[in-house]
Every structure is written in structure tokens, then in C-alpha cells.
Amino acid sequence: MESKDIIASLDVGSSKVAVLIGKTASDSAQIDVIGVGKSKINSLRKGIIVDLEATISSISEALEQAERMSGLKIDRVILGLGGAHIESQTSKGVIAVSHPNGEVTHEDRDRAVEAAQAIAQPTNREILHVIPQAFVLDGAGGIKDPLGMNGIRLEVETHIITTSTPAIKNLEKCVFQSGLSIIEPVFNVLAESETHLSNQQKEIGVVLIDIGAATTQIIVYEEGTIIHSAVIPLGGSLITNDLAIGLKTSLEIAEQVKIKHGSATPAKISETKTVDLSKIDENEKGSESEKYIAEIIEARLSEILEMVRNELKKVKKDAKLPAGAVFTGGSSQIDGLLDLSKEVLKLPSNLSHNEILIGGMTDRIDDPSFAAALALLFWGKQHATGNAGHSSQMFKDISGRFRDFWKMFKP
Ligand SMILES: Nc1ncnc2c1ncn2[C@@H]1O[C@H](COP(=O)(O)OP(=O)(O)OP(=O)(O)O)[C@@H](O)[C@H]1O
Ligand SMILES: [Mg+2]
């Protein structure tokens, strides 16, 4: 039976489903990973479900693995979201402080954030997260938390993350039919930014980039708050497709070539180095130049990084984030990525590392494609109340959700 100190997360990615089960104690910051499940999935396009049955079967497989390993039956999960349907915008809310010249109360602060949610959007979209950026009290700006301050007019700038209702509903349906209810749906890279970035990086300015199979998710911080987030509909599976075409091989072989011999820096590879394809698959003949393979990878990865750069331009942070770019996601393992990133993004570039305490089966999740599922476990420990069994209610209960962000943004 699931008990209070057990948390589970579910990341339905474009190439894999990951389920993690963690054990926590209220007097410790650590989570011990006691169940790990991973299954293949081929029923998402750009992070959006195109086959319900196949998705349910992949979720069930990963869930069963994790349950078997932990010896526990899971009935609720923190659910990660990351498809190309996710968008973000900023929105301002303005209210009059309820006691003029009195102190700003919790209610005032929440009313201001709620006012910011009154954004015009199509009926097929809904708000996922509302994150306060900064408050302005009687014209004085840059206030992180106005609670207890005196004033009359309270304004707030928020970062709002929205999703497509049909895309979410289909995912919800698959999760429910796999026998799970949803504690809370969370934008993957937002959860990852809590576990894979330090407060110092967020303060001085940083972009976290999760390059997955079909999408690249980014989140940008400055002065401790989120200033931008986006999902770019390109990822590592496109690199595999390009290699399959360039090398005239199957996708399976192209994937092996990429993982075992791929690099994003052809300039560093000798003209004479070759990959013997028969060593990857005995039915294949001949060999391919490693430099040529790297040229294909470099071309597609540069395009992805250029798109990240365009997103940074939207918030005028192009080449201007002192803590640089931090990479995670399965495709961050491509050799030479950091060199290419320094060239294209013109930013210091590093691979992410956990800023959190984990124990248990850490060797099983020592892979950046588990970054989202791991971050969702910690999100569950930090934010979720654990008593919301049904996600549809959670979607409506935005006000309950944004309150949790105070924990995140308090200095
Ligand atoms: N060693 C490696 N070198 C290069 N690429 C790799 C390596 N290992 C995995 N990948 C790539 O990482 C991708 C999978 O990453 P990840 O599990 O983060 O994606 P996902 O979460 O399923 O997809 P998305 O987040 O886009 O929905 C695949 O494209 C895979 O080819
Ligand atoms: Mg992913």
C-alpha cells in the first residue's frame, strides 16, 4: 500500500516512459529512490499523444517495473508535461490593497496573482502554472514578496504557462486507464529547474535546456525568477532521422551510430577515422566516415541551438546570461555538445548536476533522461499536498497551486 512518505512520478516522454518511486521523510531533504521503471514509447509526436492504447501499454509497463522493484502498489503520481503544445506568456495583475495604507496580506497577494490570470486565450487552452515574477507596490518595483509591506495599489508581473486542453485530456485519459490518479501535472523543465539549478545560477542568469527525443524544453531565470520558458519541437530523434538518411541505414542502426560514435564537433575528428557498420549490425556492409557522421549531427544540433538562441532573443538575453546554458535530457549526452553550444549560444555551457540529496538506487537513474522523473519526485515532496486525488480538480485549483511558488521564490 502507498503510504504518506512514498512519492511516485511519471514522465511520458517522446521516446521513453519513466516511472520513479521515492521514499521520503519529513525531517530529511533526501529522497531514496526505491523503484525505477522505463519503457519504450512510440506513440507521441512532438510530445503529443497520437495513439491512446499504445501509450497506456507503455505507461503500464514502466509502472509495473517500478512497482515490482519497490514491492509497492502505486495509485497516484506527479505527472510531467512537456509537449510542443506548452506555451508561456507574461501577464500583469493589479488590485487595491484591502486595507488602504494597511499591510499587504496573503489574500491581497493571492488576489493580485489571481487577477493576472485573467488572460484572453482560446477555449482549447488552459493555465498550468502561474508564477509571480515581481511585485510593484505604489509604483515601487522589484519587490519579491510584498507580504507585510504598506501600500494602496499592488501590481504583480507573472509568468504563465499554458497547455492545450485536448493534449492534456488525452494524456490524463491514458494515465487514468493505467490505474493511476494525478496528484499534480507539472511542466518538466520547471521541475528540473528546482533540482538541477542552484539559487546562485538563477540569481545571476541561466538557461536550463532539456534536449529530449522530440522536443527541447527551456527555462530562463534571472534575479531568482523565471523570465521565459518554451518548448521547441525538435530533439534527438531528428538527428537519428538525419543520420538514417545520410548513411542510408535503418533508424535502429542510425541510433546506435549516434550513441556509440556520434559527435557534434567534426572539426576535431580526423578524416581517416571510420565506423564499421557491420560491427553494429552484421547485415550491414561498409564503413562510414566519422567526420561525415559528426557533420550531420552538428548541422541538426546547431539548428536546435539556434532556436534556443531565438527564444533567448525574445527576452533580450541572447548571449547575456552569466551563469550560461545548463543541459539535461537524453540528447545532452552527445559528445561535443558543450563546445557547439559555446559557439552557437555564445554562453558558458555545462551539463546539469543534481542540487539535491538522493539515495537508494542512484546508479539506475544516473542518466539525464531520468532528470525529469527525478525532478518530479522532488516537486512532489516540496509542493504537493498529496491529498488531491483527481487531476481535473487540480487543474481548476490554480489558486492552491501558485501559493506553493512562494517557497520557490523566497530568498
Ligand atoms: N549517449 C547518447 N548520445 C546521444 N544521444 C543520446 C544518448 N543517449 C540517448 N540519446 C538520445 O536521447 C533522446 C532521449 O532523451 P529523453 O529520454 O530525454 O527524451 P524523452 O523524454 O523521451 O523525449 P521528449 O522530452 O522530447 O518528449 C533520444 O533521441 C536518444 O537518441
Ligand atoms: Mg523528456
Q: Quick summary of this structure?
A:
The chain is an alpha/beta fold. The protein has helices spanning 52-70, 106-116, 165-177, 188-196, 199-204, 236-247, 251-261, 290-314, 337-345, 371-382, 391-396, 398-403, 405-409; strands spanning 6-12, 16-24, 31-40, 44-45, 48-49, 76-81, 87-96, 125-137, 140-143, 153-164, 181-187, 206-211, 216-222, 225-232, 274-276, 287-289, 325-328, 349-351, 358-360.
Structure description:
With 411 residues, this protein is of the alpha/beta class. It has 3 domains: 6-83 and 166-196 and 354-409, Nucleotidyltransferase, domain 5; 87-164, Dna Ligase, domain 1 (2-Layer Sandwich); 231-351, ATPase, nucleotide binding domain (Nucleotidyltransferase, domain 5). The chain is built from 13 helices and 19 strands. The chain has helices at residues 52-70, 106-116, 165-177, 188-196, 199-204, 236-247, 251-261, 290-314, 337-345, 371-382, 391-396, 398-403, 405-409, and strands at residues 6-12, 16-24, 31-40, 44-45, 48-49, 76-81, 87-96, 125-137, 140-143, 153-164, 181-187, 206-211, 216-222, 225-232, 274-276, 287-289, 325-328, 349-351, 358-360. Strands 11-6-1-2-3-19 form a 6-stranded mixed beta sheet, sandwiched between helices. Strands 14-13-12-17-18 form a 5-stranded mixed beta sheet, sandwiched between helices. It has a 4-stranded antiparallel beta sheet with strand order 7-10-8-9. The longest helix has 25 residues, at 290-314. The protein is globular and about 80 Å long. Mean pLDDT is 91; it is low at 385-404 and 406-411.
